[in-house]
Amino acid sequence: HKPMATLELFVHQDRRTMPSRFLFVFCRKEMEACEAYERRHQKVVEDAHRNHEKAVQFLKKSMSRIRQKEAKEELKTQKHMEKRMQAVLSLKNNITSNRETLRTLQVRDKAKALEAKKQEMKMTGAILAEGGDVTKEIFLHKQRVELERQKQEFTEQQKSRKIEIVARILQEEAYVEKQKKHQARAEALRSQGKLQDSLQWRIKTWQYIENACEDPKSWRTPSACSLVDDKSSSVVDFSEKALQDTSYENDDEEANETLAEPEFTGLWSQEYETDPKPLGASKMEKKIFTENLEKLRSGIIRKQVVSGHEFKGCPFYSKPSLIHFKDFDVGKTYKKKIILINASYSVNFCKLVGVSEHLKDFINIQFDPPGQMSAGMSCEVVVTFKPMINEFLEGKVTFLAQNGSFSIPLKCTTKRCVLALDKELIDFGTHVVGETISRTIILTNRGALGTRFKLQTSAEFSALAVKEKHLFTCNQYEMSIFLSHFFEHSHSVTEGEVGPFSSIKLQIIFTPSVPGDVHAEFEIAFDNPNCKPLHFAVIGVSVDVPVWVPNPNVDLKICMYDRLYQDCIIIRTKAALRLKFEVCKELSNHMELLPKTGYIQAQSSFSVQLKFLPRHSLPEDAGKYFDRETRVLEVPMTIMIADKTKPVEFIVHAIVTTSDLEISPAEVNFGYCTIYEAVQTTITLTNKSILPQEFGFVGLPEFVEIQPSDGFGILLPLESLNLDIIFKASKAKEYSFELTCKSEINRQFKLSCKAVGVHPPLELSHSLVKFAATALNDVSTATLYVINAHVSLNCFTHAVPRIGKGEIAPVGPTSFEFLVPEDSPVTIMPSVGTVLPGKKCLIQVYFRPVLSEQLIREEAVQMLCRADAKRTMLKKIHESEMQVRTVKNQYTHSQKKINLISTALTYLYSLIRNFTGTFERYIIPCFVASGDIDEKKGSENLKYSPYNTLYLELHCPAVAPSVVVTSNNGKNIVNFGEVAVGHRVIKRITIQNISQEQLALGFSILNPNGPFLLVSPVGTLEPGENQFLFISFCPNESKLFFETLDIRSIKATLTLSIIGQGVAPSIACSVEGEVLDMGYVIAKEKVTSTFKIQNTSTLPLRYSIKLESLSQTRDKEQQRLPFFITSPPGWTDFVGTQNYSGLSVFNIFPVEGVIEPGKSQDFTVTFSPDHASLYYSDCLKVVLFGKEIAREIWLKGAARNHMMFVEGGDPLDVPLESLAITSPMSEEAAKGELEEPAKSLLLSLEYIQGETSGTPAVRELKIGAIRTAQFASKKPDHPLMVAAVLTLKGDIKESYKVLFIARAVCT
């Protein structure tokens, strides 16, 4: 660095004057400060890079959420639009069907009217032929017909009403009988003034019916709703109504006012009143009884709560929401069907309460309660309307649901006239005196009732004309009004009739005779008193000047500054004149009319060219004609006519806007950029105009690129657009340039840019690596090189590494380091290295996509929550049915771990199967420093510049695997663990095809000399099929083994990592030597001995203990000659004397088992002979894993018939017993057992005489006593063992018979 060079120069210059120690300390501090600065700078760069990556991740998540939200909003909007379109289509179909119905009705009415007219004409001709009065006869005929019709209708109504009254009487009788059975207070009812005989009530009822039939106006028709309400009401209601009816029958005036009351009294007393309080009760009981009765009458309403949410609102929706009977006729019957839909959260009920009180005589409800209705289900209700009066009716139908009551509004509207005009103002415009112009106005009746109309002048307008009579005298004109029917044009009348659902055209003709403004108001009056008069106004302008502008308002739309706009203005005239065109002084610099003077011929037109060039000074020059807020310009233009004082004016309208484009920011600094990368920055281009503008960046340098659309596009009014400017330095230097943006009107806008080009000492062979689609847990590899092409400092022959115009990088070893982000699926090998000048270093990049731990945790939490919910539900079901047995509980507890493992496998498989693929983009920085990284001392770091950093971009697409491992918790690692050398272990691996296609599988080749072997490869896998792979491991030495097995398919490769370690088994035995001597024991007794075996290896040892006497080959070996005949001297057989009983002499426990690493096992050997012998022996073998003999132990023992024994001397027999069968001992022999001769011992004493003196010959005899439990109670009188030694001196060779007599007692 430059500071270091300056420091070294300073030290050399002042070396004479400065002590060397001070210089050394000063240099060291400076170097430490520089290194600390470099470390801080590197840490800042790393922190910035990490923060940038985090910001990018958060931005991606935010953008994905925004896109999802926008997609949902778009889908919601589309659904809403579809619903609206369907509603419009259904409305259109309804309108079409209604029109067809109306046309049919109109044709039918016309046909009837025509037929009636023909009959009337025939009758008129007949009367005239007879010489009678036509008018009188026709009137009398109409009266007779009307009277006959009324009589017939009255007779039919009388019959139907009699039937209804009789039916109601029968219903009441049945109801009374029912009440008498269920009520305990029938006597109290009769005691309060009721008639005793029901026959008298019948007579009175029939008298009432006769009176009612004689006077049809004094009664009304009962409705079904009133019947329903009468049934459900209490006895008190019937009594009160009966009392009212009786009183109203005596008064004729009051009878006319009680039409809403029942026609007859019923069968109950007028004075009867029920007492809701029970007899003989206290006040508290009466109060409780009253409250309960009110609850019973009003209906019990319960709240509906589902999943913690209380339903609030109307429990049922009605379709339609309003019951509307339109345009009804009195006497006819109308029906409407409505649908009730359950809108609550769960099952609900619906009960009809009734209709409004004033509608009960006209409305009948047919409703069968459906019972329980699930949410969303519907039922039908039929409403029948039979009008008796021609009046507007309004009310409601009330229902009761489980969680509250609700009602449906009901309206009944009579026929009426709905009249309207298509316009309220007729503007004839400007016309010359003497012309005739006509306009049409349409009168439409949208109602079902026709009426007559009359057209007349408005009263207000007439009064105003009278007051200001001089106005009309000076503005004389003629206005004729012609009314013509829609179909008939021959009649000219000022009044007529408009039928139902029809329209009439009214034609107005304007013929001005005097110049001036004309205004008139007219009124259309109707015979129907309910129809308000309609008004419309007529205006017109008549001019005597023969010059006018057909379009007095010239609209130039939206205009930009400094742009020329032209328009053509047409001028018409009746006579030949000279015209002069003038513009106001304020806009003379911006607007012009050409030509300024012109001559126009009679009955012709003249064109004037308008030119408008707005300049930026327009707001100041225009003054009052320009609005700065709305930017609207209104300029009056004048046409001067020769010999005329009054000019003709017209107005020019325009909206003036700017054409500026704003670039933000105005200056861009790209910073340091290497020649191997591109730097991108974003600018904002804003359209300040209210018109769309096209733009484009032109004349771009070779090292600059603008996206999107290469810097071209269209900006909508006041729109802002983000553009990406990409800069790629071509060489190391300082850049300063401008970018030019042109608009469609050729305006230019500049953008200043700066940058510094950097040429790093190293370069990458590939800056972009695109991996192929890689399955999860698969590996993709890419290869690239780090190249050091810097071999010369000559900057004139080739480009040299430098930062801008700085110093040239030194030639020599250059180190690099790739900084891979943590938790990324990318690995770079090697990540650190040094490249010599003119050399290159091979770099391998590995991409291994795996499921992130966070994703696995989230899936695990979701699945565990669902499993807990399911388990809770199942537990509740089991508890409700029966108690779980204890055995089942223990089994469930033992299976807990297995369930957890299966749950883990389930969510892991779920993630893999539902994996839709991802695409990640990583940018890996590569830091470059001059020097060899291997030569650095200790913690010393190489000095580097962050501007020389190289960047490697990786595109990493990940897809779902086609083949997965379902065993071993889904892991791709097959770990055999520790296996004994020479032993073979086989493991089974389950693979599954999770794709939708059949896969042909291939396998890589394992090491043929290695310990691993693929036993059963699989050829094909069907979709969803599971197959087993068997891999064996047989180590031949004690070490760690590792291999990989690739399972290849067309889509992806699944790699299995196989690991195993060979271990040599070793044990340690507590038996010293190879012999375990059990000693002496009395025959038919037993003795035990214990020894220990310890596992000194690192793997569990499976052992088994075998005895040679129990081997399968023992029978064959016994058929051979004895070993003392065939074998050389000194060799002995391990298996000696055996028991006569056939049982084994030696028993070992335990026989088999497993010894864990570092643990030991105790073994117990039991010696149990059944006869006396000195040659009991056997061979114990410790066998590991059923194959290897790890240790052999020779078991020996001797048995005696007596406690005392002598040991020593030369053998006098062979160590094998006779194969002959020994006969059992007789009683005489047993008696003479004590007298058997003493046993002989052979002692061979060999003495060797030396030159001086010889060494005595010595032999030792041992006398012993066997410890036994037979004499445990006796006390010993003599010592237990005596040793006798025979010493022989001299040249003597003789044999001596030594007899020992002793008695011993065990203690």
From TrEMBL:
Domain CFAP74 third Ig-like: residue ranges: 547-657
Pfam family of the protein (one): Ig-CFAP74_4th
Stretches assigned to the CFAP74 second Ig-like domain: 419-469, 492-545
CFAP74 fourth Ig-like domain segment(s): 663-757
Protein name per UniProt: Cilia and flagella associated protein 74
The organism of origin for this protein: Chelonoidis abingdonii
Gene designation per UniProt: CFAP74
